[in-house]
Amino acid sequence: MAMFEDYCIITQDLEDIKKSISTQDLPSAINTIKDYLKQQDLVELNIGVMGESGSGKSTFVNAFRGLGDEEEGSAETGPVETTMEPEVYLHPKYKNVKVWDLPGIGTPNFKADEYLKLVQFELYDFFIIIASDRFRECHTQLAKEIMRMGKKFYFVRSKIDSTITAEKRKKNFDQKKTLETIREDCENGLRKIGIDVPVVFLISGWDLGKYDYQQLQERMEKELPQHKRRVLLLALPNITLEINEKKKKAFEKNIARVALLSALVDTVPLPGLSVAVDLAIVKKETEMYYSAFGLDDPSLQKLCERSGKSIEVLKSLMKCPLRFGINPASILSLLGVAFLAVAEDVVEYVVSLIPIIGSVAAGGMSYMTVVIMLKRALNDIAEDARNVLMAAVGTAV
Known about the structure:
This protein is of the alpha/beta class. The protein has helices at 2-21, 26-39, 57-64, 112-118, 137-148, 160-167, 175-192, 213-223, 226-235, 241-265, 273-292, 297-307, 311-315, 328-332, 347-353, 362-393; strands at residues 45-51, 87-90, 97-101, 126-131, 152-157, 200-202. It has a six-stranded mixed sheet, with helices on both faces. It is globular and about 65 Å long.
């Protein structure tokens, strides 16, 4: 059913594309198709992060975007309130993902309805309500007002790493029991101030791979509208094998959609368009895979700084044929036919074997070829990401 819906949407869009490219030369037509592909990734996700001064809001904003507190583009942090009005921070890779650091709450005359109006409540898809110790009346006021207005929120108890460090000094320290005690304390406190069935996520802004971040991510993903779930998944820092696998599945679902676009473009009678579009599709998608899985050079460099591993060590674990560069030759190697292109006298034979260089029946053939190429690329890149992550962390995360 989902594939049929994708087919209908793409077919409808393609009618407009056909009209545009019917009077264009090949380079202009390719740019039209590329622009169409870019439009598919412009769905915005707006996340509002709120809490008292010093609760760890800004650190969470940074960590969610894969940044440390001192990195370029990070939200300012400190022991006192540094956010006086809503401030938006774009995800470094996905500019359509916007995380908002909202002004501190908890002033003596705090009123939730006035606060939400001030920060333009309707803008956000959901809210993260953060506390670094006890949840107070201001938190429950916000929660009730957000519920009344029909949006989602999540309670986050931050700075768990600091609490655990302090508790370790006690005799008979038991981390599991300590975490259970913190959770129960937060939940009981929320019940006392009017939240009937509280759910609290314990988070360390310094290390999202620990504690409840995975459960928080799963809850956010589950409760978002379908068209925004993929946006969230792509933006999540690739810090656990579970997130790695979820990203892979999200990309797998998208393969059919872009392959359908390839098949439908084959019906446009413009010489050379089919092969150029197919190569453009595979190139764009595989570049997105590398970025989302954190295998691009900037992401690998950050991982090296945090793990102490050299970039040479991490890159040595990558086996995908595209790791040395995404170009026509490396893309064709995904089909296992790149060796045929070595000699000039077999070029014509290569053309006859590769379905993406279309003919009358090229629509279905092109669809299958793009599917095969993208599935192989995705499997290889996801496996590389898994190996790099495990090597960087030093364990099966």
